[in-house]
Amino acid sequence: MTVSKRTILGVFAHPDDESMGPGGTFAKYAAAGHRVAFVTATDGGAGRLFAERPHDNAGLREARRRETTEAAKILGLDFLGFLGWEDGKLESSNILDIEIEIAKTIRREKPDVIVTFHGSGISHHPDHRIIALAVQGAFLGAGRAGWYADSDLETLPRHAAAKLYHYTLSLSLIASVEWPRKVYASPDDEITTVIDTRDTARMRWRAIQAHRTQQNGPPFKLLYDAGAFNEEYFVRVFPSWRRGEAREIDLLEGLDPVQ
Q: 16's torsion region: left (phi>0), alpha (psi -120 to 50) or beta?
């Protein structure tokens, strides 16, 4: 069967979010012949501490860039790089500046589908929540003339992506494992889209392992062993969900055929 090639763009806050987030979904679409790319807003300089981690921020930032490049190769993704904001400081940055940089990425990469964090940030991390807000503005503004009147962004051709998703956790899934930190997980009636990732679960686990400086994070090995990587969950933000609509099993569902 010939695949109609699409572009899916992930926009996240930190190096590792692409793997510890919807890595199985991204790998699935990449394996099917679609282009899956992602961009990371911060430099990763405030990542978790452990004994073997570089002690200086410059060393850590470089290590995390290498780790992210390695994880992207495992998943089959196009790593677009870091936007350069300081890790852990997005809430003190100008959110409009962040939105503009994301909108530039959208106009350059021309994605059909955009994926970012759930609005809660899932772990309630301020960086995650800021990115979710900035992506929502950029999703709209990248497709409209005059939205960024005072920015050089207006020199780039407009591009309106067709769909916007928030990656989330399932409340029923989290309830089935011992999770060591407080997270937001979506109840069943909030989840609009469930992707079968059984075939790419191991790839996601390998990509998580590539982020060696972050190895003391959430218990992803526990989740992987419990089969929790076999599905990934999303909330469709645009087009907005309608009551009574059947759940999706495909991020590309409803898109017109590629000409």
A: left
Q: What are phi and psi of 193, to 5 degrees?
A: -145, 130
Q: How far apart are the first and last CA of the chain?
A: 16
Q: How far apart are CA 84 and CA 93, in angstroms?
A: 12
Distance in angstroms (rounded) separating the CA atoms of residues 146 and 133: 20
Q: Which residue from 175, 176, 182, 187 is spatially nearest to 233, judged by alpha carbons?
A: 187
What sections of 45-196 are H helices per DSSP? 57-75, 95-109, 126-141, 171-175
- Distance CA(195)–CA(113), nearest Å, equals 15
Contact between 235 and 190 under an 8 Å Cβ cutoff? The reply is: yes
For residue 36, give the nearest of 4, 12, 61, 5 by alpha carbon.
Answer: 5
Q: What share of the chain is helix, strand, coil (3-state, %, to 5)?
A: 40, 20, 45
Over the stretch 21-51, which tens digit does the pLDDT of each residue have?
999 999 999 999 999 999 999 988 776 644 4
Q: Look up residue 41 and give its two tokens.
A: 């807003």
* All domains in the chain, ordered by first residue: 7-238 (3.40.50.10320)
Of 236, 242, 248, 206, nearest in space to 77 by CA: 206
pLDDT tens sequence across 112-151: 999 999 999 999 999 999 999 999 999 999 999 999 987 8
Length of the chain: 259
Taking the C-alpha atoms of residue 195 and residue 174, their distance in angstroms, rounded to an integer, is 17
